[in-house]
Design a protein that fits this description.
By secondary structure, this protein is mostly beta strands. The chain is built from no helices and eight strands.
Length: 76
């Protein structure tokens, strides 16, 4: 299952920067668990998992600017 970056920015075109992953490949994740911290133009926000699963791949690294809707991880 693809995990996409949610639209957290309050203004269009504002970069979303991955500041810290809170999970690693192989970790079991429950729905609602915080999986990463994202910085917007105004705040540092935790992103929660929308579904349970095991992290099989992290496609973005800390410091990356990521567009809303981009696939950032995969859960098995």
């Amino acid at each position: 299952m693809d995990v996409k970056m949610p639209d957290l920015a309050t203004t269009e075109g504002t970069p979303l920067v991955i500041r810290r992953w809170l999970v690693a490949v192989g970790d079991r994740v429950e729905r609602g668990q915080a999986i990463l911290e994202v910085e917007t133009d105004k705040a540092l926000t935790e992103v929660e998992a929308f579904t349970a699963g095991t992290v099989s791949e992290l496609l973005a690294v800390e410091g990356d600017d990521v567009a809303a809707g981009a696939v950032i991880a995969r859960f098995a």
